[in-house]
């Protein structure tokens, strides 16, 4: 059995040695002559078990038990009160003070050994639980540090300087530390920009990894002003090659030319992107014409895009299905009705913030939610 560190508290030396002799040398013993010493040693030595006499000078066993329970809170230390049979009231007082059991004097050898063996099992269980908790805490701390480090890398991959534009507004709300959604912008000039909004399958870190590939391809090819169709084709190819089967990314890639007032979009698996005019009317939709990226091989991939020219100021709005799939306390979805009720009741530049407020108010924190992302670009 597990060796115990036992604190024996008694003002009479012979009694202390007698208890130790009964318990044999299989355990480690420390001794206190009174309650004051018992409290000090309990804090310093953190014994596994305390055998506490009641009648002692300076501080009695009941007072010492109260102090120990107040000061030793991080783990349970069993305390057994030792008292004469005639001192029944003191036994009761000791138990009320926080003692776990009692023994009457003169001590019965077999009963003392039996009680210590019984507590020994519980003490071992507690030690194992404390060690497991320590390891879990250590793992959690390391995990949090790694999450913070990895998230910092993820954040640096997005060129947030390109979002600093009065015509651009976005909201990104991950369901966990890491998001399977991606919004990225690449500005080529004051009049020309590329954008991408993506939704990877799953949640958390596993879902976010494919978005690294998506963003790297998008940034490098947009920098060289490749065609939207070429960017879409290369992202599909890279996802097919670099990520496990069964994982894919719904995404929309777009290029806006403010000078020519044109929008070109490839949409694979995302909800329709919509253009809304100043009269709160939907004047164009960019529907998905392909399955999500990473599913089809190169030969079967559909890289066709939708090119549209606006003739009046409008707001292009893109979003992932985390918006419409948001759940309230009754498992009701926010839905497309909720989405367009908000979008079509507000003016350009106000819609995204209004939608954000509506979603936050609607969503239940008790339900597992999908990542939520939306992007607004004013086309003037």
CATH topology of the largest domain: Phosphatase 2c, domain 1
Helix-and-strand structural type: alpha/beta
Q: Portion of residues in helices?
A: 25-40%
The helix/strand series, from N terminus to C terminus, equals EHEHEHEHEHEEEHHEEEEEEHHE
Number-wise, the strands total: 15
Q: How large is the share of residues in beta strands?
A: 15-25%
Main sheet record: 5 strands, parallel
Question: Unreliable stretches, pLDDT < 50, 5 or more residues?
Answer: none
Task: Describe the model.
With 380 residues, the chain is an alpha/beta fold. The chain folds into 2 domains: 128 residues, Response regulator (Rossmann fold), CATH 3.40.50; 222 residues, Phosphatase 2c, domain 1 (4-Layer Sandwich), CATH 3.60.40.10. It is built from 9 helices and 15 strands. The strands form 3 sheets. Strands 2-1-3-4-5 form a 5-stranded parallel sheet, with helices on both faces. The radius of gyration is 35 Å and the shape is elongated.
Task: Write out key terms for the chains shown.
elongated, 9 helices, alpha/beta, Phosphatase 2c, domain 1, five-stranded antiparallel β-sheet, 2 domains, 380 residues, Rossmann fold, single chain, five-stranded parallel β-sheet
List the helices and strands and how they pair.
Elements (H helix, E strand, L loop, with lengths): L4 E5 L3 H11 L4 E5 L2 H11 L3 E5 L7 H11 L7 E6 L3 H10 L3 E5 L3 H49 L10 E6 L7 E7 L4 E9 L3 H20 L4 H15 L6 E9 L4 E7 L4 E5 L4 E5 L19 E4 L4 E6 L15 H9 L7 H12 L9 E8 L1
Parallel strand pairs: 1-2, 1-3, 3-4, 4-5
Antiparallel strand pairs: 6-15, 7-8, 8-9, 9-10, 10-13, 11-12, 11-14, 14-15
Helix pairs in contact: 2-3, 3-4, 6-7
């Amino acid at each position: 059995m597990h060796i115990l560190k036992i604190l024996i508290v008694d003002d009479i030396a012979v009694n202390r040695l007698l208890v130790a002799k009964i318990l044999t040398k299989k355990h480690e013993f420390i001794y206190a002559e009174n309650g004051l010493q018992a409290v000090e040693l309990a804090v310093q030595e953190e014994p596994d078990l305390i055998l506490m006499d009641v009648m002692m000078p300076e501080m009695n066993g009941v007072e010492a038990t109260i102090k120990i329970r107040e000061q030793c809170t991080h783990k349970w230390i069993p305390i057994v009160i030792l008292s004469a049979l005639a001192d029944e009231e003191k036994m009761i007082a000791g138990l009320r003070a926080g003692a776990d059991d009692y023994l009457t004097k003169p001590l019965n050898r077999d009963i003392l050994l039996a009680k210590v063996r019984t507590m020994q099992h519980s003490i071992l269980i507690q030690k194992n639980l404390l060690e497991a908790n320590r390891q879990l805490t250590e793992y959690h701390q390391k995990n949090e540090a790694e999450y913070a480090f990895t998230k910092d890398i993820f954040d640096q991959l997005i060129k947030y300087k390109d979002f600093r534009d009065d015509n651009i507004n976005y909201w990104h709300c991950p369901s966990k530390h890491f998001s399977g959604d991606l919004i990225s912008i690449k500005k080529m000039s004051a009049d020309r920009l590329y954008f991408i909004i993506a939704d990877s399958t799953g949640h958390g870190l596993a879902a976010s990894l494919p978005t690294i590939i998506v963003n790297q391809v998008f940034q490098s090819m947009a920098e060289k002003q490749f065609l939207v169709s070429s960017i879409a084709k290369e992202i599909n190819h890279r996802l097919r090659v670099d990520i496990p089967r069964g994982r894919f990314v719904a995404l929309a890639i777009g290029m806006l030319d403010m000078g020519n007032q044109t929008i070109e979009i490839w949409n694979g698996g995302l909800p329709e992107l919509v253009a809304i005019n100043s009269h709160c009317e939907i004047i164009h939709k960019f529907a998905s014409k392909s399955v999500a990226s990473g599913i089809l091989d190169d030969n079967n991939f559909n890289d066709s895009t939708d090119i549209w020219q606006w003739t009046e100021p409008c707001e292009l709005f893109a979003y992932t299905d985390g918006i419409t799939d948001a759940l309230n306390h009754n498992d009701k979805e926010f839905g497309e009705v909720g989405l367009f009720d908000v979008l079509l009741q507000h003016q350009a530049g106000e819609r995204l913030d209004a939608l954000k407020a509506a979603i936050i108010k609607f969503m239940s924190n008790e339900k597992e939610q999908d990542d939520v992302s939306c992007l607004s670009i004013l086309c003037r």
